[in-house]
Amino acid sequence: MTDNKLKPLDGSTYSPEKIAKMTVFFARIDERIVALRREAQESFAIFNAGIRDFYTRTTQLVIEVSELAGCLDANETELSGPVQHSLQRISSLVTDLQYHDIIRQKLEHIQQTNEKIVSAMEQAVSHHGTQSMQEWQPILPDVVQLQAALLDYTDTEYQRAFRKMKASFESFRENTRSVGEIGTMMLEWLPAEESESAKAALLVKSVNELVQQIDALLSVINEPGVFSHLVKEICSQLKEFALELPLSDGCCQEQSWEVLKHLQQLYTMQSERLIYQRIMRSREEVKNIVSSDEGEVELF
């Protein structure tokens, strides 16, 4: 009689039916991570659309202020200071948009791990137990914990990036509003028939329109709670799933070491590698797996 139980290297047993259910679980986790990526993409897309338009509008304000200062023979630095600050703020926001790319990459790394697990499980079921599944089983509880930890930290980074960008937009709005206040003061003492008065009125109109656009953008930005809620749901499911897995004995066979090495190579960012080392530190072999380099420098 053929035994349909897999015989993993660590002595635990998974039936093909159990592995099939696990495959479905990881496939669903992958779908949730896709939803996370979509939520992040949509949120940052709002920032991106606003930044491009605002940068053009602010550059035009710099020109208008410079022309007005020239007509009045005034101190251009004093008049253009606030609008220059606005331009600097919007320029920094362009750089901050890289946060989205960093978050996207981290979610992709978690997806890549999922894909490898699903592939190994599918092979195990179709071939009634292959080496591919056996090399995963001793380390699967740790890998699941690793995914949850990476997601949790990615959420922390997302919240930080989102709030930083929103605060920058609010600061940009206040700097821009102060430009309008300067124009309003000019209107109070410039003769109405002077051409300079018309220029000042045009400046105030441009500023008010820009401030209204910034307010409109800030009003439609979704709070980062949706992303965080999705992450918490996924992490909860992963942690519950980990409790159903046989506990590892803390050591890996050579085939499992190869899997760990490959996973470590997926995590190219410093924060990912630090989390990887924290989760896997109980394994003696990890000391020889983790590279001594610090990975790429992250923005946060």
Provide an overview of this structure:
With 300 residues, the protein is an all-alpha fold. The protein has one domain. It contains 10 helices and no strands. Helix 2 (76-96) packs antiparallel against helix 5 (140-189) and helix 5 runs antiparallel to helix 7 (225-243). Mean pLDDT is 77; it is low at 1-12 and 289-297.
Q: Layout of SSEs?
A:
Blueprint: H1 16-72, H2 76-96, H3 98-126, H4 131-134, H5 140-189, H6 195-220, H7 225-243, H8 254-266, H9 270-280, H10 286-289
Helix pairs in contact: 1-2, 1-3, 1-5, 1-6, 1-7, 2-5, 3-5, 5-6, 5-7, 5-9
* Largest sheet report: none
Mean pLDDT: 77
Q: What class, by secondary structure content?
A: mainly alpha
- Amount of helix: over 70%
Beta-strand proportion: under 5%
Give me the number of helical elements.
10
Shape: rod-shaped
Low-confidence runs: 1-12, 289-297
Features:
single chain; 300 residues; mainly alpha; 10 helices; 78% helix; disordered N terminus
Summarize it.
With 300 residues, this protein is mainly α. It has helices at 16-72, 76-96, 98-126, 131-134, 140-189, 195-220, 225-243, 254-266, 270-280, 286-289.
